[in-house]
Every structure is written in C-alpha cells, then in structure tokens.
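Sequence only, no structure available. Ideas?
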Amino acid sequence: MSSEAANGVCESKLIVLDIGLSANVPSMTTGAVLEFSTDGQLQRTLVQSQSLPDGIAADYASGRMFWTCMGKPGKRDGAIYSADMNGEDIKTVVSTGTINTPKQLTIDSVNKKIYFCDREGLRVYRCNLDGSDLECVISTGSEEDPEAMKDAENWCVGITVAPQLGKFYWTQKGPSKGGKGRIFCASISTPLGASSRSRPDVQCILGSLPEPIDLDIDEKSRILYWTDRGEIPFGNSLNRIQLNESGLPVEASSKPDVLTRHLNEAIGLKLDKKNGHIYITDLGGNLYRCDMDGQNKTKLYSDNQRALTGLTLI
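Reply:
I predicted one. Tokens follow.
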C-alpha cells in the first residue's frame, strides 16, 4: 500500500509506534500511531491515546495495519487492534482480558495469520486477521507461577515468520543487558500430538546474546535480522545471520554479523528490500535508515519526548 504523491508516483510511508513513556506527562494512554515519510518527516498522528503500543505490521491484501498495546505488564489487559492505512475504521482484534503483554507482531500473508509474542504471558500466539482461532503455539511457562513470570529468560518478545521455510522465529530476551538472550525457531505446522509446552521441533538457533528484541527476515536470501537492546559492544545494535535451506544458521555463520551499533535502546526494525534499506527505531526517540549491510546509517528523526517501538512500511 502507498500514498499517491502529487506527481502521480506512488510513495511509501512508514508507520511508527510511540510507546508514550517519554512524553511531557507520560501515562498509560499517551501512546500513538504515527505516520512518517521514508525520509523521516513526521506527517501526522494517525491514532492517539494508546496503552503502550509496541508491535505493528501491515497486511497489504486487506489494506489494514495491526498493532499491539501492552497494557500494564503482568495484568491481562493487553490487546490487539487494526485500522485502515489512514488510522480509521479501528477494530479490536484481540480484546483485553484475553492476553497479558503483547509485544512484537508479524503477519503471515500466505496463511493469513497474525503472530505475536506475549511477554509476561510467556507465550507465542497466532490467530486469523479478525482475531478468530486464537492459538497458543509456544509456551515457556505458566502465568500461574509468579517466579516463571518474573524470569526474563522466559519472556518472548520479537517475532517473524518465514512461510517459504515453513518456520517462525522469536526472541527470548533474557534479563536487561544480561547476555542471556536467545533466538528460537519452530515449524509453522505444529507436530502431531505436540503441545505448546512440549514441541520436538523447537530449536534454539542462537544464544548468549545481550538482549535481542525485534526480528525480520529476507526469505529470498535466507538472512535473519534482529535488533539488540543490550550493552555495547554487541548490544544496541542491528545484527544478521545467514540461514541454510532448512532455516537454520549455516555452520560458517554460527556467529552473527553486527551491522551497525550505537543505537539508543534499539527496538523495531523493518526491511525495505525493494530499495535496499533497513529502518530501525529506538526508545531514545530515534528513527534510522541504513543499507542492507548496515552501511550509511542515517538518523532520519529524533525527538527525546518520544520513545519509538515497532514500525512497518506501507
């Protein structure tokens, strides 16, 4: 989806979430959905009064975008909403009282599914675009166990899906800047007889990461990208690793490439494969763009009264 420029050429737009916690008077409802040009100019606020919005993705076929609102961590008041690309016709996809702290979100456009992580809920979910058939596909612990809920090694945060490889990938970030972050993958098709707590197809493909957050994948080149919020020299960074035909890291690339560093609490990323760019956000209120190899990093926008989280390209 794109907007029609005055000269008749279609121009892409960035939709970026502001979690709202750096506002002059922060509250649980100062989050917003923002529209930017791809050169970093803030165009308008599409949706206001959001409760800690964190992850966003667009479904081009339906012309709608979907985002999570975390609500208060540890309470079952998280939700998922959708709207058209102008922020209108807002609909509730997953209502409050159902999930805990929904984080990053992605869309499997082939199978018409939303995937998202629930941090304090200790789960990875998927559902239809209208919210029906909500299914827990990964569980790392029980919400009824306070110790399991507090253990950041159980927290599922980032998510991406690769229909061509038949897999989805997620991060379990570990303690803040703790060096215990991991990236996992599992099959889109749940093995027969498996449960969300016991799946033989779950594989940890990377470990001992500073604090991995969001994920995106280029299925054509089989390269997995992620942001890391942890400490320097390997945290606050954009990273990638080469995957093989099975969707696992190739042996020669068992250590990830750090593409760019010196981000300020890195969160969201979005690949713009058509133009050879990657867009990144951080909680310092910055929006960046770099090449696919991490070169030519440019700070497109900066506002210390914003804390930017998820983003998508439309």
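The longest strand covers residues 42-50.
Hope that gets you unstuck.
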